Amino acid sequence: MADEPITTHIDELAREEHALFEKESHGTATDADRARLEQIGVLLDQCWDLLRQRRAKREFGQNPDEARPRDPRTIKNYLG
Question: Ramachandran region of residue 29, left (φ > 0), alpha (ψ -120 to 50) or beta?
């Protein structure tokens, strides 16, 4: 797997997130929209983490295809 599908997925999620933020700002978001917005946040965190893993493996001469998505709870506990 190359990085491009991951970055494409990030772009798609970001566009969807933006559209949902727009609905929220106009007061037209539903509970389902809010739930999806939360889900997108988790998916984006996972995608970015996977992309960082791949880049780190590549930088240190390892196979980036060995990178795997991590559990959302693990990612949420990261300190930034």
Answer: beta
Show the domain range for 14.
Answer: 3-76
Three-state DSSP class for residue 61:
coil
pTM of this prediction? 0.89
Provide the residue type at 1 as one letter: M
Q: What total of structural domains would you count in the chain?
A: 1
Q: State the Cα–Cα distance between residues 42 and 1, nearest whole angstrom.
A: 21
Q: Is 50 helix (H, G, I), strand (E, B) or coil?
A: helix
| Successive 10-residue mean pLDDT values, the chain, 80 residues | 93 98 98 97 96 97 96 80
49-74 CB burial, b ≥16 within 10 A, e <16: bbbebbeeeeeeeeebeebeeeeeee
